[in-house]
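User: Here's a chain of 181 residues. Predict its fold as tokens.
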Amino acid sequence: MHWESERLLYRPIEYTDLQALFRIYGDARTHQFNPRGPYPSLDHAREVLLRRIKDRAIHGFDDWVIMEKSDPQHVIGFGGVFVSEFNGRRTNNLGYRFEPDAWGKGYATELAHRAIRHGFEDLKLKEIVGVVRENHTASRRVLEKVGMTFLERVFNPQDPPASLMFTITRQQWRERNGTGH
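Assistant: Prediction complete.
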């Protein structure tokens, strides 16, 4: 299955995406707001990729591989809605990571709108959350632009800075987008 938005194409992750996953998540620049740092090795990226494929089989969805329509063979990022654990609760998490050349073009917002629509219309999720580091103002703005509202600040002394959790329910999304009940 494939999805699209105005400028972007999306598809499920496949094993052949290993090099692109490591290229993007192994780049220190893409982890500037993530204290855990970039993926340390191709083997680590392989473990993550296999876990994502397994998660998709378990939950029926996971985040997507992202390409520009103008260059559909080149992966520019990964993102969408996936199941994760945050602050002791299972969440349908909106997340994204783009290669640095794709930054500043509004792609995160475009992806977020499309992923939320997919989550509520196709997957029938009741709530989607987004989690960002307190100091990552660009990602905070993306979550706010797509209608998510601040829910809570979570501080873990072993993993500073604090994370901020944003949320939107299917009902809130419907009201904001005029899709009724």
